[in-house]
Design brief:
Shape: globular
Strand order of the largest sheet: 4-3-5-6-7-8
Radius of gyration: 24 Å
Strand content: 5-15%
Number of domains: 3
Length: about 450
């Protein structure tokens, strides 16, 4: 239905209350999203008719769709949304979609965004995820067709659009005459396109990736988490003037530890109190180097009662077979799609974080482990050395024996372990989300 003076084309006249709306062309779903002047309109999140002021700059955050189930991306979206308005009252922040619920803190009961009426408006779309082989096609259709169409309409109400994940950069082409900021978390799409492909599925994936990378070059500004990633992105773009380094944050809740948290966590996962627990946090994709984690724990078991605690993604079929071959089935504990409370309990229950990733743009688990009082043994790949500083143990190469040696040396030297824990806590306090929001707001102001 299109606007015609005084009524919709369907012939329905405006009611007396609707005529009071200052945005005469609004269809009231948008009113609820951006806080219309009509007092009868409902609003989501921290949008309200009272705080919608013409003097405020409206910023639209574009998070990943919840059906992606990427906790790190959802956490970034949640925290940036929580802190931006309180940090700079000159911005009126809205979300283009709901964010996944796993990374939502209980104190943040806000729901934002809406869905077109054909998509169960006000219903969490994670409940609509299709099963089995249908999930991947659903993800591509939602990401590359439905979400861009929806953004094209809602972006017109904003002065600036911030796409919170570079893998959604294809949506830049749907933002009409608005400055666009993109947060680049890594350059994995570039690496994937340089790798050999085999099969029609990879061909379809690469076609969408090329579209995304082509659009990524059109952004007016980029935010990255580390200087290392800035140099990588500048090399790819051929220009570093649009790139700003804004380190990501860590929640304050990771710093607080309730009495007996370690014992309760181990009891929940049925781990002996005197066992040596190796924690790995993250997905189980190839670059996370999960097989090396398993091989390291298997070798540690020759000398100690070691357990592996995996928090994040589900093991692949090959990884499950490796667990069986190494005889680790009884000594592996997993927590798939863990919420924030479960994640913090995992850090409290572990003795060390093992993070041998082959490529990382930032590395949230490192600063989360620091805040939780956990030493970190890592590969130092990508931006990990920059984030970890002098509080991490770096092991070069992919030899499990080298990681075993580093873990054994750490467990046998309590003084060094305490030093690393103290350095880690100091390091983690350098990454508050408030600072992330302040520096992000500075990027916005430069474009407005």
């Amino acid at each position: 239905m299109r606007w015609r003076s005084g009524r919709w084309r369907s012939g329905r006249r405006y009611s007396r209350e609707e005529k009071r709306c200052r945005k005469r062309r609004c269809r009231h779903r948008r009113c609820r999203l951006f806080g219309c002047a009509f007092p009868g309109n409902a609003s989501f999140g921290n949008a309200s008719p009272g705080n919608a002021s013409p003097s405020m700059t409206r910023v639209l955050l574009v998070p990943d769709l919840p059906l992606e189930r990427w906790p790190s991306m959802d956490r970034y979206a949640h925290r940036l949304y929580d802190w931006l308005e309180s940090t700079d009252p000159g911005f009126e922040v809205r979300l283009a979609a709901h964010i996944g619920a796993l990374t939502r803190e209980t104190k943040d009961g806000r729901q934002s965004g809406g869905y077109p009426r054909w998509w169960a408006q006000d219903v969490d779309p994670t409940a609509l995820v299709l099963p089995g082989p249908l999930r991947e096609p659903q993800r591509y259709v939602a990401r590359h067709f439905l979400y861009p169409w929806w953004l094209k309409r809602d972006a017109k109400r904003a002065r600036l659009v911030h796409i919170l994940d570079h893998s959604y950069a294809h949506m830049i082409t749907r933002v009409h005459r608005r400055p666009v900021v993109v947060t680049v978390h890594d350059l994995m799409p570039v690496i994937v396109l340089r790798s050999p492909t085999d099969g029609w599925r990879e061909g379809i994936r690469n076609r969408f990736l090329r579209q995304t990378l082509k659009a990524l070059r059109l952004a007016q500004a980029y935010i990255v988490g580390t200087e290392w990633l800035k140099s990588e992105l500048a090399t790819w773009l051929g220009d570093d003037t649009r790139i700003t380094v804004v380190p990501f944050g860590v929640d304050r809740a990771f710093f607080s530890e309730a009495p007996g948290a370690r014992a309760r966590g181990r009891a929940d996962w049925r781990i002996p109190e005197d066992a040596f627990v190796v924690l790995h946090v993250g997905s189980t994709v190839e670059r996370k180097n999960v097989p090396l984690v398993m091989q390291t724990v298997a070798r540690l078991r020759a000398e100690a009662d070691a357990y592996l605690l995996q928090v994040g993604g589900r093991f692949t079929g090959d990884q499950e077979q490796l667990v069986e071959r190494l005889g680790l089935r009884r000594y592996v504990r997993t927590a798939q799609f863990a919420d924030e409370t479960t994640l913090r309990r995992a850090y409290r229950a572990a003795d060390v974080l093992l993070f041998p990733s082959l490529y990382e743009g930032f590395g949230y688990p490192v600063i989360e482990a620091f805040a939780s009082g956990l030493p970190v043994v890592t590969s130092g790949a990508g931006g990990l050395k920059e984030v970890g500083g002098d509080a991490i143990v770096v092991v070069e190469g992919r030899d499990p024996a080298a990681y075993v040696q580093a873990l054994e040396a750490l467990s046998e030297d309590p003084a060094r372990m305490e030093l690393l824990i103290a350095r880690g806590r100091v390091r983690a306090r350098e990454f508050p989300w408030q600072k992330t929001a302040e520096r992000t707001a500075e990027v916005y102001r430069k474009l407005l």
